[in-house]
Amino acid sequence: MNCFLKRTNSIKIKTFGTYLLQITLRKVQKNDWDFILELRNKFYHFFYKQKKSIPKKEHYEYMEKQKQNSNFHQWIIIYDKKDAGYVRILDNDVGIMVDDKFQNKGIASKALNLAENEAAKLGIKKLIALIAVDNDSSKKIFEKNNYSLKQFWYEKDIA
Questions:
Q1: CB neighbour class for 89 (10 Å; exposed up to 12, middle 13-18, buried from 19)
Q2: Which of these, 16, 22, 23, lies nearest to 115 by C-alpha position?
Q3: For 79, phi and psi rounded to 5 degrees?
Q4: What are the pLDDT digits (tens) for 111-143?
Q5: How far is residue 156's CA from residue 147's CA, in Å, rounded to a whole number?
Q6: Total-model pTM
């Protein structure tokens, strides 16, 4: 049984008997960028845009650029007082990455719920999730959280 807190930036989940582990989101700071890069390079094969590992310089340039983007929001997922993953909203596209050692604990679903609450506070009315065709784990997370498939997207590189 899950126990939800009144605060929207924190959720507790039951894991071992009556011991509750807390999931929270905190805003990304520059000292988190290496952790995010590590996640991006670990999971890029699941992304619909990034097709290879990226170097630190390129990642830092991207993060600096996004600091100026009012439609870019990002948080570190904290689980049991440890950095467990990353969630970001770019325009209205939500993306989640959870480190391997924290997967299969319901963290992504809880983080998605927290991100939805944050999005509502920011005035975002609708979230979408652009997911690679072979990313079954992400599909399950979003379907479990009442996201519905709206279209198929085909593309071809011609140059």
A1: buried
A2: 23
A3: -130, 120
A4: 999 999 999 999 999 999 998 888 899 999 999
A5: 26
A6: 0.83
Encode pLDDT of 35-64 as tens digits: 999 999 998 767 666 677 889 999 999 999
Cα(133)–Cα(11) distance, rounded to whole angstroms? 30
For residue 118, the one-letter residue type is E
Q: Which of 95, 98, 30 is nearest to 62 (CA)?
A: 30
* CATH fold for domain 25-144: Aminopeptidase (3.40.630)
Coil/strand/helix, residue 47: coil
Rg, Å, the chain Cα set: 16
Phi-psi region of 96 (alpha: psi -120 to 50; beta: other; left: phi over 0): beta
DSSP state of 1: -
Phi-psi region of 33 (alpha: psi -120 to 50; beta: other; left: phi over 0): alpha
Q: Which residue has the tokens 């997911």?
A: 131
Q: Is 149 exposed, middle or buried (0-12, 13-18, 19+ CB in 10 A)?
A: exposed
Measured in degrees and rounded to the nearest 5, phi and psi for residue 144 equal: -60, -30
121-135 core/surface letters (b: 16 or more CB in 10 A; e: else): eeebeebebebeeeb
Per DSSP, helices labelled H in 28-156 are: 33-43, 56-67, 107-121, 136-144
